[in-house]
Design a protein that fits this description.
987 residues; mainly beta; Jelly Rolls; Immunoglobulin-like; 5-stranded antiparallel beta sheet
Length: 987
């Protein structure tokens, strides 16, 4: 894919030579948006949608793109062209060129012909003519040919042509092509310079192969007296003088001589270098800030930039974007926040460093001429006032009985405008009031007429809203029967529900809204109208919905190996019982959703030989669910040797199920080399070697027992010994359940010591004891024994006369618990709150208690101690730390005790200071202004904590997106112990 050439690069004073130059621009078809300036896609002759070239990004030979040539008509050509202007192909007459490309068949064609065309498509040659079956040739493969033009081909275009024959009756033909090259085959006579460049040159060099000249432009300020080219590209095998990297004086043209590969052909090239002159331009060509109403006006005659921004724009921090003459600099710099309250002078210095110009930039604010009243609010208004911007009137209505002579309106105006009379001043609205609004420009005015009227006393006695957080759906309000009905979910305590009630305007209700009531039975509310005389009784009935749950919450059979698996999605229960368990008479204990029943019944003996269906009917008597219960028997995993006997044995064998060994003694003189054992193993298990097979027992023999499950296996070692007279009196092992580690046996001191965890009862334990062969022990192994204190065991040897006393001691580890289990004060209002996770205690004492000297009563974990001690007086004005040390003397825990004083506070504002909580009602967020540090708590009317933040200070924002609509209590606990609370409505 390369025209032959030589590249010379200066890299650390080394030269690099590369052969071949591809004459094709963009030969790998990379980085093309749809296509680019070098190639044309979908050019066909004739042009038809059935014969196209397509840019492909999903399949390439190398890189990320290729081109697909395709058609669907028999013997239809697809042509794929380079551009004659931006991608000309230069071929020399009678010189040979290698044409090469990579192709991949996408769709089988009976015959595929891929050809190259040049010289205006007057010359062509076949590159590939075969049947590229994609089944047998699934990968990319290379095709190539040699072309030899008979005439020079300059500034022309090259194209690829593709056609195919159809297979059977279906037209076919799709071929991918990638990495395409046309490369001059060298003959040793080329002496061309293909590229010649300096670091930092302004534009690409201009090479004229006819005149033999190279023109290059360098930036202003470049020293031409000692320039060295960093890249020179030559014909293959050619050499050049002067060499690459050799500095030359380019203040005058420099001649380079190129010698071809044949050593005799030469060609002189003249390199001419010019320097871009410095610019004396010092203009501001563009000026903008995002806030401009229109593009800034730039007056080069007086060096003035003028822009206008909307009324209200903060001109003290505008960030300008400034464009200036090329090569020039400006001060102050663009992109920096600048104060344009007054005109700002910028100095632009030209590229030549001597020419400069002062520019004045002025940013003007547009005055506001609006005279609108955009809001008019009086706290007493029944509904928002009606503002008519055409008639310039404001009309509002206040409740019956409102004093119109002292109403205080809050008025919102157009930006910068003023009003007379003033906003927020008590005004007499007994008659119509005229307000005059003066715009920001100080001259434009508008009179507004404001009319406020009082409505008549209402006789309405309606309940318009009745809401309880627990309601399963909106309450039904019957205005004809004057009844309200609602339902709450199963399990709701209807004795303490808190309804939120809204009534007709000006009316009152008893009992009041937001007061807890007992709705166990019908409750009567009395609504009194605004006129004070009209009344109406309303009957409220709250019903509890029956439970619809059909869950099995617990399923237990005493024989289960582990807890049954309950799948609440598939409604299945599965469990496993030990091997040998009888499935026909199992008695399950079943727990259900409250009020539900089950069939078959819980506690009844049931046959689980096959899966059994239980039907659970909910409390509502309608909802039901079938549950499938499957109980399976676990395969036997025992790998025990339960019996081992030899005809020659003198006593029963010793089977050690812990060490998995068998010891058996035979009579003196028995031949150990040929003994036949009879062996019994766990049910269903197998043994290897088999029982009844003779073995040599001179040494210990391994037997492998495989359990019934086919997986669990155990190797047992069988040792056969002759029966000498045994005088040993050793205890070889001693164990009881729950030992923390194997007992320590001291054969010198004849002691056995074991350890159990704190709290283990040792008064009735059954030890398992192994002793010397033939010996006996008293008390015997497996006998219930009191091990709470040391016990002496006597081992008598096989000879019947030798005896040894052993002292058995089971020790109990000390307690490691560090809990405070009780904490009380004589002054407490109720039991302390003990948090075992945070290791903290909170307790409240009665109002007025002096916390400087309180005497607590403290209980801790058994054996533990506490510091300060129980009954010691402490100052509880602030938190007190108690250190609990466990019985083991090592484990410790610090407990933090906080004592608060009971106080009675209401919902409102402290007389000492005002804490602002707004807006109220709120929907998106609530803002709290704190003048000092406080702990913030937010509860709903049921007392549930919905938000908390400790040590809050300054302004606080609480986002309300996760809160339900309703009424909440915001509590502010001050550091001095005082408390303030606010009622907050969230809508």
């Amino acid at each position: 894919m390369k025209r032959t050439f030589t590249i010379l690069l200066t890299i650390s004073c080394l030269s690099l030579v590369v052969s071949g130059q591809n004459l094709v621009q963009n030969p790998s078809f990379e980085n093309l948006p749809s296509w680019d300036e070098h190639w044309f896609l979908s050019l066909t002759t004739p042009s038809t949608a059935t014969a196209v070239a397509t840019h492909v990004t999903s399949d390439a030979h190398d890189g990320s793109t290729s081109v697909e040539l395709s058609n669907t008509l028999d013997k239809q050509w697809t042509y794929f062209y380079t551009d004659v202007v931006s991608a000309p192909i230069l071929l020399k007459a009678n010189r040979s060129y290698e044409v090469r490309g990579w192709i991949r068949s996408v769709e089988e064609g009976k015959k595929v012909e891929l050809s190259i065309f040049w010289n205006g498509s007057n010359s062509s040659q076949v590159i590939y003519d075969a049947n590229p079956d994609p089944v047998t040739n699934p990968d990319w493969f290379m095709v190539e040919t040699i072309i030899t033009p008979t005439a020079d081909f300059n500034d022309g275009y090259l194209s690829l042509g593709f056609q195919n024959d159809k297979v059977d009756v279906n037209p076919a033909g799709r071929l991918l092509i990638d990495d395409f090259s046309v490369t001059l085959i060298p003959d040793g006579t080329d002496a061309d310079i293909w590229a010649f460049s300096f670091p930092g040159q302004v534009l690409p060099e201009i090479i004229d192969p006819v005149l033999g000249t190279i023109d290059i432009e360098m930036p202003f300020g470049t020293n031409l007296s000692a320039l060295a080219p960093d890249i020179i590209v030559l014909s293959d095998g050619a050499s050049i003088s002067p060499g690459i990297g050799e500095p030359q004086n380019f203040n005058i043209p420099v001649v380079y001589s190129v010698t071809a590969l044949d050593g005799s052909t030469t060609h002189n090239w003249t390199v001419r270098v010019t320097v871009t002159p410095p610019s004396s331009a010092s203009a501001i060509t563009a000026f903008s800030v995002p806030e401009l109403l229109a593009p800034a006006t730039i007056n080069g005659g007086v060096q003035l930039v003028l822009g206008r921004v909307p009324y209200g724009t903060d001109v003290t921090t505008l960030v300008p974007n400034i464009e200036i003459s090329p090569g020039a600099s400006i001060d102050p710099a663009p992109g920096v926040a600048t104060d344009f309250t007054n005109p700002v002078t910028y100095i632009v210095v030209a590229e030549d460093g001597s020419t400069f110009q002062d520019w004045v930039v002025a940013i003007l604010l547009e005055p506001n001429i609006e005279t609108d009243i955009i809001s008019f609010d009086i706290p007493e208004l029944l509904v928002p006032a009606t503002i008519d911007n055409s008639l310039h009137t404001v009309v509002g209505s206040v409740p019956f009985g409102t004093d119109l002579s002292t109403l205080v309106p809050s008025i919102g105006l157009s930006g910068g405008a003023t009003i007379n009379p003033l906003s927020d001043v008590a005004t007499d609205f007994s008659s119509t009031v005229t307000y005059t609004v003066t715009a920001d420009d100080g001259t434009t005015t508008q009179d507004w007429t404001v009319t406020i009227t009082a409505g008549p006393a209402s006789t309405e006695t309606d309940i318009t809203l009745f809401s309880i957080p627990e309601l399963s759906s909106a309450a039904i309000i019957d205005n004809a029967m004057h009844t309200i009905a609602g339902t709450v979910p199963y399990g709701t305590d209807v004795r303490t529900l808190i309804p939120t009630i809204e009534v007709s305007v000006g009316a009152s209700i008893s009992p009041a809204s937001d007061v807890a009531q007992d709705f166990s039975s019908a409750l009567t509310y009395l609504v009194r109208a605004q006129d004070g005389s009209t009344t109406q009784n309303w009957t409220v009935n709250i019903h509890i919905l029956p439970n619809t749950a059909t869950e099995i919450t617990s399923f237990n059979i005493p024989e289960l190996v582990s807890a049954a698996t309950i799948n609440n999605v598939l409604h299945t229960i599965s469990g496993m019982v030990p091997y040998r368990t009888d499935l026909t008479t199992l008695v399950p204990t079943i727990e259900l959703s409250p009020g539900a029943t089950i069939n078959p019944l819980s506690g009844a003996a049931t046959d689980f030989s096959s899966p059994l269906t239980y039907t659970v009917t909910a409390e509502d008597g309608i909802s039901f669910m079938d549950w499938e219960v499957s109980i399976t028997v676990a395969p036997n995993t025992e790998t025990d040797i339960t019996g081992f006997s030899l005809a020659e044995q003198t006593a029963p064998c010793t089977i050690d199920p812990v060490a998995h060994t068998i010891s058996i003694e035979v009579g003196s003189g028995t031949n150990l080399g040929f003994l036949t054992p009879i062996i019994s193993v766990s049910e269903g298990a197998t043994i290897d070697p088999l029982s009844g097979v003779s073995r040599d027992f001179t040494l210990g023999i391994p037997y492998t027992v495989t359990a019934e499950d086919g997986i669990t296996a155990q190797v047992w070692t069988v040792t056969v010994t002759l029966a000498p007279a045994n005088t040993e009196t050793d205890i070889t092992s001693f164990s009881i359940p729950q030992l923390l580690s194997p007992a320590v046996i001291d054969n010198t001191l004849h002691t056995v010591v074991g350890t159990v965890a704190y709290g283990i009862d040792l008064s009735a334990r059954v030890p398992t004891i192994a002793i010397s062969r033939g010996a006996t022990i008293d008390p015997a192994s497996g006998v219930l024994t009191d091990l709470s204190s040391p016990v002496t065991y006597t081992v008598t040897a096989e000879d019947g006369s030798t005896a040894q006393d052993w002292l058995i001691t089971i020790e109990t580890l000390p307690n490691t618990e560090t809990d405070i289990t009780e904490f009380s004060l004589a002054e407490e209002t109720g039991a302390a709150t003990i948090n075992l996770t945070d290791h903290s205690i909170e307790i409240e004492v009665v109002s007025g208690t002096d916390r400087n000297s309180l005497v607590p009563t403290i209980s801790v974990s058994p054996g533990a101690t506490v510091d300060p001690a129980d009954g010691v007086s402490r100052d509880f004005t602030s938190g007190v730390d108690y250190l609990v040390t466990a019985e083991d003397g090592v484990s410790t825990q610090i407990w933090k005790v906080s004592v608060s004083v009971q106080r009675t506070v209401g919902i409102g504002t402290s007389s000492a200071e005002s804490i602002k909580v707004y807006p109220n009602p709120a929907s998106e967020y609530v803002h709290i202004e704190l003048t000092r540090e406080a702990h913030i708590r937010m509860h709903d009317l049921m007392g549930k904590l919905c938000y908390s933040k400790d040590h809050a200070n300054g302004d606080q924002n609480i986002m309300l997106s996760e809160f339900k609509e309703g009424i909440y209590i915001v509590s502010l606990h001050m550091e001095d112990g005082s408390l303030q609370q606010r009622k907050l409505i969230i809508r």
